[in-house]
């Protein structure tokens, strides 16, 4: 684990404080309404567990992970902890490289402050957009006693903001969101090898990151400066030109292979979650069709030119494609072999779809077989 300040390439403590200062205000709610929203989200999270288990036939074996209803500062703190956990080995290696350069330690100390501010700006931007997430790589703590545990985060102000923006039934929308996020929790608790496999792929990707620390920091700054308004013209130009994302820019050939596998896994997980929440929805969410239609339009539209450019730079456009392509893969495989046939995907890393198979599910069916109908 890396320290919070000084010799790190990113001053994480400063990133948190910067993000907290720059957070956009959430929707106006009374104290009583806020308590009611939190209580309802917790109830929906509990109810969603049974709905998802019955629909997917995935058994978590009694594994329980925390459900945290957080505000935007809470989301920022949780994600910084997760970033430090995953990026620790890479940061240590880059810190050693910088320390070997004359004056490198002093340069890193100064640079970490600058980067901490700018990473904080990014976190502030993202914190108003996330409705919930299953935090797979949360570090061990009082509520997470050991490695391999995760926790489910539901960002209450963002959920309220979107349900108002879409003008949908609050009760239905909150349950609908919980069904999606609970599916992610079920994926990792019911498939014990999945977390370790994903972590191994991520670490392999980072090990291949043969990039100078200053170069990596500069790429982060491009996004952060756009968020701060200083790079709006550059971001708009990147949108028009279809420029690469941060992830695209740090790839080696070996990383591209790993990233293809990671993209396939993430497409599967996101598409499965979308398929499940829409499959469960008609029975428990009366207005699911209206919610899906409005939410899909919102996903595709973005909030404007700068927002679209930032989504591309941060790789968020790829995430939107993951929802669409992954859901189509799941639907095709379930249609061919039923849910039991689809669940063969969870047998081992070898039965996960490749990136090409996500786009062409018939290839996965030919390789693995449809299973029982």
Automatic annotation (TrEMBL):
Pfam families in alphabetical order: Zincin_2
SUPFAM superfamilies: Metalloproteases ('zincins'), catalytic domain
Matches recorded under Gene3D superfamilies: Zincin-like metallopeptidase, N-terminal domain
NCBIfam families in UniProt: DUF2342_F420, putative hydrolase
Listed name of the protein: Coenzyme F420 biosynthesis-associated protein
Provenance organism: Streptomyces hainanensis
């Amino acid at each position: 684990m890396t320290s919070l300040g000084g010799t790190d390439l990113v001053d994480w403590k400063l990133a948190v404080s910067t993000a907290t200062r720059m957070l956009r205000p959430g929707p106006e709610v009374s104290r009583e309404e806020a308590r009611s929203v939190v209580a309802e989200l917790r109830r929906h999270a509990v109810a969603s567990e049974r709905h998802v288990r019955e629909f997917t036939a995935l058994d978590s074996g009694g594994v329980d992970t925390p459900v945290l209803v957080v505000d935007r500062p809470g989301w920022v703190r949780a994600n910084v902890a997760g970033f430090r956990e995953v990026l620790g080995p890479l940061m240590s290696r880059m810190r050693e490289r910088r320390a070997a350069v004359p004056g490198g330690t002093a340069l890193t100390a100064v640079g970490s402050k600058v980067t901490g501010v700018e990473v904080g700006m990014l976190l502030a931007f993202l914190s108003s957009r996330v409705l919930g997430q299953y935090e797979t790589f949360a570090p061990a703590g009082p509520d997470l006693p050991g490695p391999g545990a995760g926790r489910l985060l539901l960002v209450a102000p963002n959920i309220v903001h979107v349900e108002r923006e879409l003008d949908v039934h609050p009760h239905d929308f909150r349950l609908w969101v919980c069904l999606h996020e609970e599916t992610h929790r079920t994926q990792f608790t019911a498939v014990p090898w999945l977390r370790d496999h994903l972590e191994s792929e991520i670490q392999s990707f980072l090990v291949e990151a043969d990039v100078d620390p200053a170069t990596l920091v500069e790429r982060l700054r491009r996004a952060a400066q756009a968020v701060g308004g200083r790079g709006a013209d550059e971001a708009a130009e990147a949108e028009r030109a279809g420029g690469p994302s941060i992830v695209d820019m740090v790839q080696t050939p070996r990383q591209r292979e790993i990233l293809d596998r990671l993209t396939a896994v993430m497409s599967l997980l996101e598409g499965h979650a979308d398929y499940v929440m829409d499959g469960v929805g008609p029975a428990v969410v009366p207005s699911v069709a209206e919610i899906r239609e409005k939410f899909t339009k919102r996903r595709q539209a973005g909030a404007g030119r700068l927002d679209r450019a930032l989504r591309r730079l941060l790789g968020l456009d790829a995430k939107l494609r993951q929802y669409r392509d992954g859901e189509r893969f799941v639907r095709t495989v379930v249609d061919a072999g039923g849910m039991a046939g689809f669940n063969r995907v969870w047998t081992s890393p070898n039965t996960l779809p490749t990136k090409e198979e996500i786009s062409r599910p018939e290839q996965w069916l030919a390789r693995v077989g449809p299973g029982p109908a």
